[in-house]
Amino acid sequence: MKKIALLVIAVFWMLNDIEAQSVFGKWKTIDADTGKPESIVEIYKKDGKAYAKIIKILNKEDENRVCEACKGNYKNKPILGMVLFNGLKHDGKEWNDGKILDPKNGKYYKCYISLVNNNKLKLRGYIGISLLGRTEYWYRVNK
Predict the structure, then answer these.
(1) At 141, phi and psi to the nearest 5?
(2) Spatial distance between the Cα atoms of 105 and 5, rounded to a whole number of angstroms
């Protein structure tokens, strides 16, 4: 009986550890120009693909900002609630083959994301090949 209880505890511990190492959850973004926290983004899974949505803007002055530079459906729409990236597919240790929107300039870029560690996410947006792009790091928001 004691061995079964230990086995159950070990399985739950491993499952918790696997879940904790997921890209899914809430992440704090950092402004590349100022180095200050910018927003909270939630990465979620839909139909086996990864998506990210802005759920909070940290600078009170920017809370009601709209995407003036965006085209199409996002033109002059609130940045709060906007889907930043969509359609990323899991490929080994990273999620890729999707696009990310930069609300500052309204442009879409190819992107991939991968965990640096449980609390740090690497996001790379690029044009054409990943050498022509920019890397950002997002930090997990602990509950």
Answers:
(1) -90, 115
(2) 55
Residue 25 contacts residue 19 (beta carbons within 8 Å): no
Q: What is the chain's pLDDT, residue by residue, as a tens digit (143 residues)?
A: 555 533 334 334 343 334 458 999 999 999 988 999 999 999 999 999 999 999 999 999 999 999 999 999 999 999 999 999 999 999 999 999 999 999 999 999 999 999 999 999 999 999 988 888 999 999 999 87
Q: What is the C-alpha to C-alpha distance for residues 101 and 83, in angstroms, rounded to an integer?
A: 8
Residue owning tokens 């990864």:
50
Q: Are 99 and 108 in contact (CB under 8 A)?
A: yes
Q: What amino acid is encoded at 29 in this protein?
A: T
Q: What is the pTM of this model?
A: 0.82
Task: Judge residue 14's burial from the number of C-beta atoms within 10 Å of its C-beta, 0-12 exposed, 13-18 middle, 19 or more buried.
Answer: exposed
Domains located in the chain, CATH noted: 24-140 (2.40.128.520)
